[in-house]
Amino acid sequence: MSSQKSSHYKADSKMELDTNRKAWIFQPSDLNFVWGGDSRYWIVPKEPRVPAELKMVSWLEVTGSFEETEPGKAYQIGFKISFKPDATGWDGAPLVMSAKIGKKGKTVWKKIKSVNQNKGGSEPVNIPDESDGQFEISVSPTADNQDTKLQFGLYEVWTGRWKTGLLIHEAFVSTSVSSLLETQILL
């Protein structure tokens, strides 16, 4: 039997609730990184609040999952990212986010145009940003006996170009403003 180490990084899945931001926060170690098990491609820290660093990949796939969903609620999803000054391969790269509810749910996709606007700055920014609009997915109100696990991801798998210099600080999931307003109206 082989004890070969995987070339992919599998998450510890220990998200934390940030009550100030009203969001569940996923540190880099709480996310899955394709090629993240190989330090030639990614450096995924075990320490909290240290970003994961993309060394070099042509297939960018970072995913996570969230099991705290409730039927009838909508959730916003995002990532906090930045770029190293020498980042390459991002010009015109179609960075995309996806999400679905349950294993058999319909996948929702959103192209993140703001990534190229933010490439020059080293300060972390949230994507999608205001220019992209929010990325939101809803759980069916009749989902009581269904799989309601939210699965989400960040991808660039289409160009085949090598990309470097991306820093992933965190991912986050929050109850959308529309869900919060509906709850307040019902109360």
Write the layout of secondary structure elements.
Elements: E1 16-18, E2 23-26, E3 32-33, E4 42-43, E5 52-54, E6 60-66, E7 74-83, E8 96-101, E9 108-111, H1 115-118, E10 125-127, E11 136-138, E12 150-156, E13 166-175, H2 177-186
Antiparallel strand pairs: 1-2, 2-13, 3-6, 4-5, 5-13, 6-12, 7-10, 7-11, 7-13, 8-9, 8-12
Could you give a short description of this structure?
This is Protein PHLOEM PROTEIN 2-LIKE A9-like. Pfam families: PP2. It is built from 2 helices and 13 strands.
Question: Care to describe what's here?
Answer:
The chain has a single domain, classed as Jelly Rolls. Helix content is 7%, strand content 34%. It is built from two helices and 13 strands; from the N terminus they run E-E-E-E-E-E-E-E-E-H-E-E-E-E-H. The strands form two sheets. Strands 1, 2, 4, 5, 7, 10, 11 and 13 form an eight-stranded antiparallel beta sheet that branches. The termini are far apart.
Through-space gap between termini: 58 Å
Give the class from helix and strand content and strand pairing.
Answer: mainly beta
Number of helices: 2
Return residue spans where pLDDT drops below 50 for at least 5 consecutive residues.
Answer: 179-187
Mean pLDDT, all residues: 85
Return the CATH class. Mainly Beta
CATH superfamily: Galactose-binding domain-like
CATH architecture tag: Sandwich
- Strand % is 25-35%
What would the principal axes of the Cα set say about the shape? globular
* Proportion of helical residues: under 10%
> Rg, please?
17 Å
What CATH calls the topology is Jelly Rolls
* Structure summary, number of beta strands: 13
Q: What is the number of domains?
A: 1
Q: Mind summarizing the main beta sheet?
A: 8 strands, antiparallel
Give me the strand/helix succession: EEEEEEEEEHEEEEH
Pfam family, one: PP2
Organism: Brassica rapa subsp. trilocularis
InterPro entries: PP2-like
Protein name: Protein PHLOEM PROTEIN 2-LIKE A9-like
